[in-house]
Structure formats: C-alpha cells, structure tokens
Design a protein that fits this description.
The protein is α+β, with helices and mostly antiparallel strands and about 240 residues long. It has one domain. The protein is about 30% helix and about 20% strand. A hairpin with a 2-residue loop joins strand 6 and strand 7. Helix 5 crosses helix 6. The longest helix has 20 residues. The chain is globular, with a radius of gyration of 19 Å. It starts with a helix and ends in a 9-residue tail after the last helix.
C-alpha cells in the first residue's frame, strides 16, 4: 500500500468519491468574496519585511509576533505555470491546555502521546507559499475549517489548487475523521473541484481501480470544465 493510500485508509479518500460526494462532504456553506475586503484578502507584505519584524529568516512569518521561535522547513518546490513556488512549513509546536479545575485557574499542557491519541496536530499545519522572496499566500486551519489565500496577482495559475491538495495530503485526519474544507466562495468551489480532479488523476496514474461512478463523475466534470462552465478563475 503506497503512502497516499495509507494516510487515507479508513477515511474519506477524495478519489473514492464522486464530485458531488466530495463537495457535499467538504463544502459546508457559501461565503461571499466581499467578506475578504476590497483587496481580496490579506496583506502578506509584512512577511517579507525583515527589519520591521526582526525575522532571522524571511520564511519564518511567526517570529516577531510574541510566539515561540519556529523552525521553518522547505516542504517542496513546484514549478507552476513557469514559476518556482516554494511551500514552507513553520515547524512551530502546538500547545494544548488541559484545565485541572472548573475555575480554569490551573492547567497543564497535553503531552505528545495525548495529542496523538486525540488525533490533533502537535505542530502548526500552516503552509506558506513563496515566489522568490515574496510570501504570496497560505493554507491552514482556521477554527476547524481550511483557509486558503493567494494574493490577487498570483491567482489564476493553479497555485491555490496545488497548495490545497498538498495540505490535504499532509493533514488527512483530525479527531479521527477527514477534516472538512468549510465555507467556500465561488472561486473556492472551483479550486476544490480542481483539487478533487487532481486526486482522481493521481489515482488513475497509479493504476488504481476506481469505482465506475467516480470515473463517470470525473469525465462529466472534465467536460463541464472544458466547456467553460466555471466562469471564475482557478486559484
């Protein structure tokens, strides 16, 4: 059994689901793009300013925010639409509080064994995206949902699709179930569908025997995509 099948064993493997099943499980609602403001999302430029934040490494966005020092590491580099995009992790440890009394006056931190038993991540899951020395986006957990953001200048190249797929592969379970993606904009719906298609394509390339309904759903979705059914640009 390969690595991919091991991490999704017993869970909701994307390639075992039709497009309707995948979106029905992962999309918990709709959110307007206006919710991200006029600029389309976050200002990530401060992650590039070493003087303002005192970063020892520009790929370490959490330093200088009063958090514990991190150990940034390069996850992978992908050439996307002619651009070398670096995917970085922070290496920061997560700390979970266990209260020892009802008044919440005394506490201790969960051990690694306890976090493993509860199936909650012991390290920060956020992935930061860099092109050259510029932080251009991130994907990570946001109050139980998956938050994906790519700056406007880099949208439309499939960077968000690759980031979301990598994040799902690296974080296949939480609390012993497959984490849902959460609410989506129309662009997010298109991105999630592109991710599902890539999972199916990878499974086909590995020679896996997929359910007939999954293959039909993939072909139908591919035709809809090629016909311009999705008017929004992919991220």
């Amino acid at each position: 059994m390969n690595w991919f099948m091991k991490v999704f064993a017993g869970l909701q493997s994307p390639s075992s689901m039709t497009q309707d099943e995948f979106m029905g499980y992962h999309q918990t609602g709709y959110i307007s793009p206006d919710a991200y403001g006029e600029g389309g999302g976050y200002d990530l430029s401060h992650y590039n300013d070493e003087k303002e934040y005192g970063h020892t490494d520009h790929r370490n966005p959490h330093q200088g925010h009063g958090q514990q020092p991190t150990n940034p590491f390069l996850i992978t580099t992908k050439n996307i639409d002619g651009m070398d995009i670096n995917f970085w992790g922070t290496g920061q440890e997560n700390k979970y509080v266990h209260w020892l009394d009802e008044e919440h006056s005394k506490h201790r931190y969960l051990t690694e064994e306890e976090t493993a038993e509860q199936d909650i991540p012991s390290k920060d899951q956020t992935i930061y995206l860099y092109h050259d020395d510029n932080c251009i986006g991130h994907v990570g957990d946001s109050w139980g949902a998956t938050e994906l953001f790519v700056v406007k200048e880099y949208q439309g190249h499939g960077i968000g699709t690759e980031a979301l797929k990598l994040y799902m592969e690296m974080n296949p379970s939480r609390n012993h179930e497959t984490p849902r993606l959460g609410q989506m904009t129309s662009s997010g719906t298109a991105t999630a569908t592109n991710v599902w298609m890539k999972f199916v394509e990878d499974a086909i390339a590995r020679g896996e025997q997929l359910k007939p309904e999954v293959l039909k759903s993939y072909e139908d979705t591919k035709k809809m995509k090629e016909s311009g059914f999705w008017s929004v640009k992919r991220r």
